[in-house]
Amino acid sequence: MPFRFAYVCDLLQRLDDNQRARAGQKSSSNIIDQWFLSHRGLLVRTDFNASPLLSTLLPEKRSDRVYSIQSKSLSRVVGRCLGLGLSRKKELERWQEPGSGVDLGDCVERILTTTPNACSEDVTVEEIDRALHRIASGCHFSSPSVRASRSSGESVDRLLELGGLYRRVPARDAKWLTRLILKSYEPVVLEPTTIYRGLHPLLPTILKVQDDFAVAARFLQEHVCRKGVTGADLSRDDLALHLKPKLGVKVSRQTWLKGRSIKHCLDMSRGRISCEEKLDGEYCQIHIDLAKGRNCIQIFSKSGKDSTKDRAALHEAIRKSLRIGDKSCPLKKGCILEGELLVYDDNVQKILEFDKIRKHVSRSGAFLGTEQDSQAHPHEHLMIVYFDALMIDDESLLGVRQSQRFKRLKELITCVQGHSQLVRRHIIDCDRQSAASDLRRIFAQCITERREGLVLKADDPYFDFSTKKRPYGSCCIKLKKEYIGGFGDVGDFAVVGARYEASKAKTFDMPHVKWTHFYIGCLENKDEVQRWNRTPRFVVTNVVELNATQMQSFIKQANPRFTTMDENESIVLRIAPGIDNGNRPSAIFTDPPIFDIRCFNFHRERNTDFLAPRFPMVNKIHFDRSYVDVLSFEELQDMARLEKEMPPQADSQELLGWIAALEQADPRGVQLHGASQTTTISAISTARTPSSAESSRPSQPGHDEALPVPESPLTAMRRAQAAGRRSAAEPLTPPRSSALMPSAAKASESIRDAGPSKKRPADSSTKTPRLSKARKVTPTGSLNSSSPIRSASGSQATPRETLGDITHSSQSRDNAGSAQSRRIVSVHSFCMPSLENRPSTISLSGLSTATTSTSFRTAPESCPDPVTVGTSHAQSFNTGPAPALPAESDENQGHKVCIYSGDACPLRDMSFLLAPCIASMPWLSEDLFSVHGISDFVTHVSHWKNSCQMSSGISSTVASHMQSRMQGRTPRRKKFALVESRRKGAVDTLFQDIQAAQLQRRNGKREWIPVFDWRVMEELTREEEKHRCVAGKLEERFDSKSKRSIWNKHWVGLA
Predict the structure, then answer these.
(1) How many whole angstroms separate alpha carbon 1055 and alpha carbon 1046?
(2) What CDD domains does the database record attribute to this sequence (predicted)?
């Protein structure tokens, strides 16, 4: 039964008018329900085909159809169809004028309103659907099934197909027909689930299992409409018996949610969840139909398009993993599996970044965006990582729990190194008290290994077909560090140009929108601009859009001066061919505004030769900054390379830093199970890029404005390195911005006096980057047992510092007067990366030596032991054994000091355990140790054990007295073990001895001992001698990056 297109236009126009109404707006879902109710008589007829109506209402869902028609080409087609003259063509092209507020559909409506068609006939959705299908069948980028519907040799004339429609429809319907062809009804947005439910209550469930309008419509006719007028007598249980996946028809994906914090993820989860590694590849839904012989493989992409031929290089890996063609093949009929397509390099034996995929996967037979890429190498090939099974041999697994589906998948797949494997995962029980710390540790390990993130899957069926659905049931949660506020900040970018897109401008619902897409870039000659005021040269890296609030602010407050590309003489632009798919800005800003940008990571855009932010978003707009403050192009490239190429740290310092940062990112005032919200914070940095000035960003729900989300250790690390490079290139000039705020300056003084474990802040005369939000510093008297943040020094709250002094750069130049103070700063720029210098006192009670170095080597099915965080300020000092009571202070003993650094030696308060294989080495125990004044070392772990037992027997009165004595200085000995790493047996014996000793902190938690190769002492001695301060000698600073490399080089493990 035909369905008039005018009925669809009635619905769309009603929704459009409702959005424009200033008062008395109705719910869009109510309008849609009323519309379906008014046409119920036509929709329930047995001869009604729902597919054309669904394709008309939801054109964006037809990813299999590609028309290759954009607004400009459609404008020319409409002009020829309607026989327009020059003046009317000019009116038709008014949508291209910035600020006009109209799109092509509005222009077509206005022309046909002035000069309507001679006769208006009813046009049906079936006619439009057939015409658009024929146009799509002639496009090379349509799916194979659509292209196959065209007869061989048949040509498709778009003018002929569309001309008959435009000459028959009235003005209002022509507007919506234009938007239908462009696959966007914006600003009207139709919710697919509301449309499906309005057409039939069971259609949403049917389309989940068989995501094809034509197939779902046939199923609706065969199994529902035969049962009765409405099909209400067919229950969901009956539907589940008849409805199952069909080979060759894509199954819809589960609902995906974003986790904004650890707490947010746990709020959406229950029971046992699978924490799978999030892979940075392309989604594949693989259909295997053994009845088709050699052509048994069919692959659907994330968009639903059939990409079997484009991914032909993956077929052999799939065949081997399923043993297709072999007698041992576990399949009898076929299966439907889910996986991720990746590129693997045999030479380096690792998975390559996402950018490499486009060299190996074509798009409808064409390799797009590879002009600036290197050729595909023979040692690179595609691989598949499986993570779910939806059907095996006609047995639907959509109603089976995730744990059972993965078990079936493991039985089915044969893993081949570099070609096919199962996703690596961990299991967490959300009902356990340690769930938060378990998830935090696993996620922190994922971050330190430079992986993309995690996917959290509850042990639920793939789809929930029950009538009473649990909130967030059968949903997947994506957890990336960039989803957590503050962890994805990049820096300031200059807005060098913009262009206008009519359809996007209409979504803002505000007048005078001149630009919708903004071109951001970095200064290529920043030094020349700052020193000699040269003409700025910008490299355009990305194109970004603004939300409605940001756009309103930009129009009212920024409104920059602009010129055209041809008339521009103020700035020089370099725009790579791949930027914005070849589009170019229509306006160039002579004094570029500043956007603060955040992103997920960095990648190499198509047809470009540099790294740029991936999925950039505008964090805030700065109205008080100049383009001179933006990132330089070199800084951006260094930052990107550091994040992509920096190897995972071998020690646990970065891991513990991320655990603490993730804990602080959770909303305040909410106690998570297995974790403390009163973590001692002493190592989170306040150093930010110039983009981090006073923020105009509204606070997030559930967060306290007094506690900004901490900066990630990796972000601080890369910013510090970028700052170090800037300071090396820039002359020493007075700062353009204000110095530290009063509270921050006061806190800096406390850092300077806090002892050798603190970083020396920059002088007030030193050029410093702009600070972020003013971080509140709590006065000494306000600290108590209920404070959520405690000072590490115990005497005064200090600003949060970076992990292991990673933000210390040469910008913080030394203007102190005394050589002694210079020596202290110089030596402690490479202080020991100990566990006690972390933001919190953390006990990894569930980590083994193997799991500390890598989190995804195995896929354990049991929940790991919890990671707990100390809950009291006193615990931050309870790691080492207590010193003997008669000699509490070193001053009373006349102790030896380091000949290079004196009391400032970073090895001063350390206790060393020497493995038996090196215990009798005079070069170590007598020479190297005596140079640093070290006398506290043992040759067997039992000495540490006895010391701990003695300290535990001290009376509470004496212990309290000791703790009060220890408030102003470093109060404990940090334990480290040294071994000959080349003697594997000696290393294993040392780890076993330490484990057998069962060392404990005073709070009863297990104590972990960092183990290094003994040669670390040699290198540290050389570096300390090299950088010691001698009278009359210009002090040479020690690079923090070099410091980290020393410890990483000799790291053995955590015992």
Answers:
(1) 20
(2) Adenylation_DNA_ligase_Fungal (cd08039)
Q: Which position has the token pair 């003697």?
A: 983
Rounded distance, CA 998 to CA 1001, Å? Answer: 10
Tell me: domain 489-645, CATH 2.40.50.140, correct?
Answer: yes
User: Does domain 280-422 match CATH 3.30.470.30?
Assistant: yes
- State the Cα–Cα distance between residues 131 and 129, nearest whole angstrom: 5
pTM: 0.66
Note the pLDDT of residue 255.
92
749: tokens are 């003084």
Q: From CA 408, how far away is CA 395, in angstroms rounded?
A: 11
* pLDDT, tens digit, 9 for 90 and up, residues 694-729: 333 333 333 333 334 445 555 555 555 555 555 544
**Burial annotation 439-454 (CB, 10 A radius, 16+ → b, else e):** bbbbbbbbbbbebbbb
How many other β-carbons are positioned within 10 Å of the β-carbon of residue 140?
Answer: 11
Per-residue confidence (pLDDT) for residue 1018, from 0 to 100: 86
Q: Which of 424, 420, 446, 431 is nearest to 321 (CA)?
A: 420
pLDDT tens digit sequence for 335-348: 999 999 999 999 99
Write the CB contacts of 833 (distance below 8 Å, at least 6 apart in sequence): 651, 653, 804, 1044, 1047
Q: Which one, of 244, 249, 254, lies nearest residue 395 by Cα?
A: 244
Residue 551 predicted with pLDDT over 90: yes
Q: Where in the chain is the domain with CATH 2.40.50.140?
A: 489-645
Q: Which of 618, 631, 501, 636 is closest to 558 using CA atoms?
A: 618
Distance of CA 372 to the CA centre of its chain: 26
Q: Using CA atoms, how far apart are residues 187 and 103, in angstroms rounded to an integer?
A: 11
Query: What tokens appear for 681 in the block?
Result: 């914070």
Cα radius of gyration rounded to whole Å, the chain = 33
Say which amino acid occupies 804. Answer: G
Q: What is the pLDDT of residues 939-983, one digit of tens each?
A: 888 888 776 555 554 444 444 444 444 444 445 678 889 999 888
**Positive/negative CA dihedral, 329, 330, 333, 334:** negative
Q: How far is CA 731 from CA 492, 564, 741, 767, in A?
A: 22, 36, 24, 10
Higher per-residue confidence, 894 vs 1053? 1053
DSSP string covering 712-751: PHHHHHHHHHHHHHHHHHS-----SS----HHHHHHHHHH
**How far is it, in rounded angstroms, from Cα 953 to Cα 767?**
52
DSSP for 384-419?
EEEEEEEEETTEE-TTSBHHHHHHHHHHH---BTTT
Q: What angle do CA 844, 846, 847 make, to 5 degrees?
A: 70
Helices and strands (H, E) in the chain, number of each type: 35, 29
d(CA 904, CA 17) in angstroms, rounded, equals: 74
Q: Which has the higher per-residue pLDDT, 171 or 802?
A: 171
Strands, DSSP E only, in 800-893? 842-843, 868-869
Query: Which part of the chain has CATH 3.30.470.30?
Result: 280-422
The CA distance from 972 to 1007, in Å, is 14
Topology (CATH) of 5-199: DNA ligase i, domain 1 (1.10.3260)
> Please, which pLDDT band fits residue 816 given cuts at 50, 70 and 90?
very low
Whether omega before 560 lies within 30 degrees of 0, making that bond cis, reads: no
Check: CB of residue 52 under 8 Å from CB of residue 125. yes
CA distances 900 to 279, 475, 751, 826, Å, are 49, 60, 23, 11
How many whole angstroms from its chain centre is CA 360?
A: 25
Could you give the CA distance from residue 520 to residue 494 in angstroms, rounded to a whole number?
5
Bridge-based pairing of strands 611-614 and 974-979 is unpaired
DSSP string over 211-248:
--HHHHHHHHIIIIITT-SS-TTS-HHHHHHH----TT
Q: How many Å apart are CA 662 and CA 264, to the nearest integer?
A: 12
